[in-house]
């Protein structure tokens, strides 16, 4: 993998986990155009590596650098200098990144260590699930700027927490703390410290790394593609995905290992 030349994203591998830290603490890690283009490069690399059996990474953790913030949103100072067309292009480029994160064959965990506001909350929701430290807070404060969410928040917040709560949060721009984020189901798990949160995210990826990479990739792909479907269409999609998984070598190995009472040897295909 070639992660050279990234200035705003710090990439560290720890066993099967790739930890991506958005690192512009002086601007609370706001998603400047430079950060967005670095995310484009990152996802391109991750798409190319995919589930390559020779690459040890089995999951990605996204977190924020510094003491205060995960990501405090789009870069408001940069946005202020944009024409409406430039702002549209900026919004669409980060929207594309969020879609590509959702389509990666690897699980992606947001480890929210502080402010996850606007584009920061939207980045977290483009991850498969969210862990949070006690300092985390969430919100879509675009109304305070006379704006609306632009990196997917209008869609994904409704999916994550339901239409009523999503509308209340977006119409008020209110910031919520971890206990409320847990209660409404935005956050899976909360931790007393950032270190505990990152350790738990790495442990979850290590747990997932014990499973067949193809099965995990198939499950992620199927669950993302069926999220908008009716129950009937979702069941058809699930049947298609199950049929595809049933043909993989890993599935044959998993079933044989169970019957032979041994640990499976995954091949990633
Ligand atoms: N963009 C740029 N700079 C920022 C941002 C941001 N989003 N947030 C904070 N900063 C900067 C501040 O300007 C400040 O810089 P400086 O020290 O040079 O003055 C530095 O970070 C520290 O910030 P504060 O002094 O404000 O720190 P506080 O602890 O007092 O406050 C807050 C922290 C509450 C997070 C506050 O900074 C804040 O409200 N930030 C803005 C949060 C926000 O509104 N986010 C949403 C932005 S809009 C968005 O994300 C829409 C995405 C879709 C765009 C689509 C385009 C079409």
Automatic annotation (TrEMBL):
InterPro entries reported in the protein's UniProt record: ClpP/crotonase-like_dom_sf, Enoyl-CoA_hyd/isom_CS, Enoyl-CoA_hydra/iso, Enoyl-CoA_hydra_C
CDD domains recorded: crotonase-like
Gene Ontology BP annotations: fatty acid beta-oxidation
Keywords: Lyase
GO molecular function: enoyl-CoA hydratase activity
Catalyses which reaction(s): a (3S)-3-hydroxyacyl-CoA = a (2E)-enoyl-CoA + H2O; a 4-saturated-(3S)-3-hydroxyacyl-CoA = a (3E)-enoyl-CoA + H2O
Enzyme Commission number(s) of this protein: 4.2.1.17
A Pfam family matched in the record: ECH_1
Matching PANTHER family: ENOYL-COA HYDRATASE, MITOCHONDRIAL (PTHR11941:SF54), ENOYL-COA HYDRATASE-RELATED (PTHR11941)
Record family assignment: Belongs to the enoyl-CoA hydratase/isomerase family.
Protein name: enoyl-CoA hydratase
Organism, scientific name: Neomicrococcus aestuarii
Lineage of source species: Bacteria, Bacillati, Actinomycetota, Actinomycetes, Micrococcales
């Amino acid at each position: 993998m070639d992660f050279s030349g990234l200035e705003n994203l710090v990439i560290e591998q720890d066993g099967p986990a790739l930890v991506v830290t958005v690192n512009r603490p002086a601007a609370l890690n706001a998603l400047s155009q430079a950060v967005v283009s670095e995310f484009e490069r990152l996802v391109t690399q991750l798409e190319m590596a995919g589930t390559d059996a020779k690459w040890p990474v089995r999951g990605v953790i996204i977190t924020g650098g510094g003491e205060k913030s995960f990501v405090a949103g789009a870069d408001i100072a940069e946005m202020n200098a944009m024409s409406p067309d430039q702002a549209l292009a900026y919004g669409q480029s980060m929207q594309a990144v969020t879609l590509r994160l959702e389509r990666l064959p690897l699980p992606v965990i947001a480890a929210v260590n502080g402010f996850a506001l606007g584009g920061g909350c939207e980045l977290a929701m483009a991850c498969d699930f969210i862990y949070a430290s006690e300092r985390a807070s969430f919100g879509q404060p675009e109304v305070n700027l006379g704006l609306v969410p632009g990196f997917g928040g209008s869609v994904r917040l409704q999916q994550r927490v339901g239409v009523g709560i999503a509308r209340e949060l977006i119409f008020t721009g209110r910031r919520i703390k971890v206990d409320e984020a847990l209660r409404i189901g935005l956050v899976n798990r909360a931790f007393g410290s950032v270190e505990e949160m990152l350790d738990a995210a790495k442990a979850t990826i290590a747990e997932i790394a014990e499973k067949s990479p193809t099965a995990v990739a198939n499950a992620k792909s199927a669950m993302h593609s069926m999220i908008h479907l009716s129950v009937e269409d979702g069941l058809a999609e699930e049947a298609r995905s199950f049929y595809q998984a049933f043909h993989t070598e890993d599935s044959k190995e998993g079933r044989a290992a169970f019957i032979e009472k041994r640990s499976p040897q995954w091949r990633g295909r």
